[in-house]
């Protein structure tokens, strides 16, 4: 069972998300919160696998909550909720440790599938969205230079795997493309996260875009 906490300052949004997710046999909404402070408390109390987090809330906002949750032992995957798919606030959330983002208008069947993806530890972020977010970053050129310096220390195979992360591929998909065992890909990813000082696959994927490794 995938345990989920829903966070939004609009009760109707929480109710809507709870109804959609509750229709899936393998998903349980264990709590909802209306600001970032409540969200952190709910995560500590209920230990969910996934948190759907609104970013703009009064009091403690979603970005601050994501930063606090990322520091917890064995933190859940936090997926940012936003109204617009090109939002610099979303980029800040991803760099703070969010596993991806969802637009609030996401169709119900897609929402359920993406929660499952997040629960499995994969990126909830399309390559198109990643490119758009990186392109609109005010400090994009500096970040691009920093990203290229970081990736200089990777082996050729590690660079290939990182580029695949930038495309949002799963370990199984990367293994098939690069003709590697899935366990080998998992090992590459774990090592790269440490080398690149990235908290999760999403941050590594963004770094791949910033470094210009993702061509499609």
TrEMBL record:
Residues 147-212 form the HTH luxR-type domain. One of its GO terms (biological process) is regulation of DNA-templated transcription. The keyword DNA-binding applies. Residues 3-119 form the Response regulatory domain. This is DNA-binding response regulator. Keywords: DNA-binding, Phosphoprotein, Transcription, Transcription regulation. PROSITE patterns: HTH_LUXR_1, HTH_LUXR_2, RESPONSE_REGULATORY. The keyword Phosphoprotein applies. The modification 4-aspartylphosphate is found at residue 54. GO terms for molecular function: DNA binding. PANTHER family: TRANSCRIPTIONAL REGULATORY PROTEIN NARL-RELATED, TWO-COMPONENT RESPONSE REGULATOR. It holds the Pfam family GerE.
């Amino acid at each position: 069972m995938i345990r989920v906490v829903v966070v939004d300052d609009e009760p109707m949004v929480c109710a809507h998300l709870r109804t959609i997710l509750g229709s899936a046999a393998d998903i349980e909404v264990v709590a909802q919160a209306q600001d970032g402070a409540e969200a952190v408390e709910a995560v500590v109390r209920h230990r969910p696998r996934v948190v759907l987090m609104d970013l703009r809330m009064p009091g403690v906002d979603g970005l601050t909550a994501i930063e606090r949750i990322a520091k917890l032992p064995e933190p859940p995957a936090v997926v940012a909720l936003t109204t617009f798919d090109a939002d610099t606030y979303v980029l800040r959330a991803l760099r703070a440790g969010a596993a991806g983002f969802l637009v609030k208008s996401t169709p119900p069947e897609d929402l359920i599938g993406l929660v499952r993806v997040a629960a499995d530890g994969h990126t909830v972020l399309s390559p198109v969205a990643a490119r758009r977010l990186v392109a609109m970053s005010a400090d994009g050129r500096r970040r691009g230079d920093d990203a290229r310096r970081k990736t200089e220390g990777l082996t050729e195979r590690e660079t290939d795997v990182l580029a695949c992360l930038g495309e949002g591929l799963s370990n199984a998909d990367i293994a098939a493309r690069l003709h590697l065992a899935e366990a080998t890909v998992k090992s590459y990813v774990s090592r790269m996260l440490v080398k690149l000082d990235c908290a999760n696959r999403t941050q590594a994927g963004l770094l791949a875009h910033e470094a210009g490794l993702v061509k499609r």
